[in-house]
Amino acid sequence: GAGVSQSPSNKVTEKGKDVELRCDPISGHTALYWYRQRLGQGLEFLIYFQGNSAPDKSGLPSDRFSAERTGESVSTLTIQRTQQEDSAVYLCASSVDVGGTGANVLTFGAGSRLTVL
Amino acid sequence: AQKITQTQPGMFVQEKEAVTLDCTYDTSDPSYGLFWYKQPSSGEMIFLIYQGSYDQQNATEGRYSLNFQKARKSANLVISASQLGDSAMYFCAMREPSNDYKLSFGAGTTVTVRA
After folding, report:
1. Minimal Cβ distance to B101: which of A43, A101, A108
2. How many angstroms separate the Cα of B36 from the Cα of each of A55, A56, A85, B50, B65?
3. Which of A16, B25, B103, B112 is the most buried (most CB within 10 A)?
4. pLDDT of A78-108, one tens digit each?
5. Could you give the CA distance from residue A89 to residue B33 in angstroms, rounded to a whole number?
6. Chain B residues with beta carbon closer than 8 angstroms to that of A110
7. Distance (Å, rounded) from C-alpha A86 to C-alpha A77?
């Protein structure tokens, strides 16, 4: 597709359930990010995939959070045993990594809004 | 430590006037990149402008310009001739080698343009 696609766009779940959020990056984009945005807040880095390198998981808030990426395509963010504080919009972004600190513009998806009751 | 600081949580600006959004950053890397993104109420993130640390001139893109003051570690966004459609949240962001080139965002500034 032309843009970054995320699904589901909205997810309401009960506390304690597991959820999976999916991201389809733009074809050819080697870099993929997940961010979390709580209501009215900034973007909190979660995880970063770059090509075949080991992912940077330094932003994952707890071991309930995990993410996978298949090659340079789809990524899945999984939250196990969801808690109310996990309620947020989860944004995925991808880019062609031009290397270094160049104009590596991220294209964002529309986000997945997660509500944990 | 906070890498990107945006001290203005919210601002009001009159239509057709200019507005300056503050951004200061903290890095010890000589090479880094600075970005501004816009997030309207619909939620999508829109790239506005980029400034490289070695760029000699301030970046400009249409009505957006970046007032880059390297010694002060400041990268303020200037929006000229504000339009109602400029009402949104604006985020400053930075990439730096010591942070593995990850894009780190500030807390954002909400701009409301009044008719």
Report:
1. A101
2. 25, 23, 28, 7, 10
3. B103
4. 999 999 999 999 999 998 876 666 677 889 9
5. 26
6. 43-44
7. 13
